[in-house]
Write a structure and sequence with these properties.
Blueprint (H helix, E strand, L loop, with lengths): L6 E5 L8 H13 L4 E4 L10 H8 L7 E7 L5 H14 L5 E5 L4 H7 L7 H20 L6 E4 L4 E3 L9 E2 L4 E2 L14 E5 L3 H10 L2 E4 L4 H17 L8 E9 L22 E4 L2 H13 L5 E6 L2 H18 L12 H5 L7 H5 L4
């Protein structure tokens, strides 16, 4: 039986909305339930506001909840992406993450006109490079690189500012960053590791991995596979948080859940589907987590306004009553919520100028 902390997160996107108050309200609702983080999906394939910019607006209106926008690494430059994610970490005081994704379609490629669509394997190799570059750029300023000495006119200790000199297949980035090292050191990296090409990137670079599974055995198998792959890359597999991604429909609190989840209707993203009431959802989460199937759940409400309220005031409240989920945030950063240490700066560890 698992005794590890339960982690819960929720998606707050849905049909495009252009009122920031809508997203602020949902994020505050999730924060009231002490969820680890909220995600906001994004894609070049549909209209809508930029998720990262929206959550930058949500940041000052919230105080503890982690904020994780989807950010595509296709048709974008890692230098810009790393700067934007670092900025979100600063304006949220250490509550930022980013959900790494790729753009697969020819229609998305034509929006930019730089290149045609590429195979998934190539896109996820590029995403891995982008994640690698981002982490190096976040480290390119040591934590005490800023001096701000008015008397001498020195703003930066240049010996603590580093060129990353990254040379990859897709990118060549010299650096350093233009944004100082983020409060968390590295904002939290999230990857949906359900598919094969994405799973390798997740094992190598992600702090949180989302997996879609229809049984606890399938989820446990994915978790074990991810931890094995992470260890092969020299990582501590115990620092990987694997969350089951579950789309939920709590529209009828009296309807029993679909047996096992297998009979739920197929979704466009190939995700697992739950339909039922908040109490039964709490039972499912309890059973899977205690059985060691996953470190937690990422819940995507079919109807965010309705279902997130039922998740927080029904499912989460019951889990809290049973002492299975926290009732308050013990720390202030997303890494603290997830029980993850702040990464050491690779260049400071080298003890010299890169």
């Amino acid at each position: 039986m698992s005794t590890a902390s339960l982690h819960l997160a929720a998606e707050i996107g849905g049909p495009p909305r252009y009122d920031p108050g809508h997203y602020i309200g949902l994020a505050r609702l999730a924060e009231r339930g002490a969820l680890d983080f909220v995600t906001l999906g994004d894609s070049f394939a549909r209209p809508g506001l930029d998720a990262l910019a929206v959550l930058s607006r949500v940041a000052p209106a919230t105080g503890r909840i982690g904020l994780v926008p989807t950010v595509t690494t296709t048709h974008t430059e890692p230098f810009h992406v790393s700067s934007a994610v670092a900025t979100l970490d600063w304006v949220s005081r250490g509550r930022a993450g980013w959900n790494v994704d790729v753009s697969r379609t020819g229609a998305e490629a034509r929006l930019f006109g730089r290149r045609p669509a590429a195979p998934a394997e190539q896109l996820w190799r590029e995403a891995a490079e982008s994640a690698d570059v981002g982490a190096r750029l976040w480290d390119s300023w040591e934590d005490d690189a800023e001096i701000r000495d008015v008397a001498t006119g020195r703003f930066i200790d240049r010996d603590k500012l580093h060129h990353v000199d990254f040379e990859g297949v897709s990118f060549s980035v010299r650096g350093p960053a233009i944004v100082p090292r983020p409060p968390q050191g590295h904002p939290v990296t999230v990857v949906d590791g359900t598919s094969g090409p994405a799973r390798e990137t997740a094992a190598r670079h992600a702090d949180v991995v989302l997996v879609r599974a229809t049984t606890p055995e399938q989820a446990a198998g994915a978790r074990a596979d991810l931890r094995r792959r992470a260890a092969a890359y020299g990582r501590d597999p115990g620092t990987l948080r694997v969350l089951v991604a579950l789309t939920v429909d709590l529209g009828d609190a009296e309807t029993a859940p679909e047996p096992g989840l297998e009979s739920g209707p197929p979704l466009s993203a190939g995700g697992s589907y739950y339909r039922g009431g908040p109490v039964d959802l709490a039972e499912l989460i309890t059973r899977w987590h205690r059985g060691g199937a996953a470190d937690g759940f990422h819940l995507t409400p079919i109807t965010p306004g309705r279902d997130l309220e039922r998740i927080v005031n029904g499912t989460v409240a019951l889990l809290q009553h049973r002492s299975l989920f926290r009732t308050f945030y013990p720390g202030g950063t997303l890494r603290e919520h997830l029980g993850l240490a702040r990464p050491a700066n690779r260049y400071a560890l080298e003890g010299g100028r890169a």
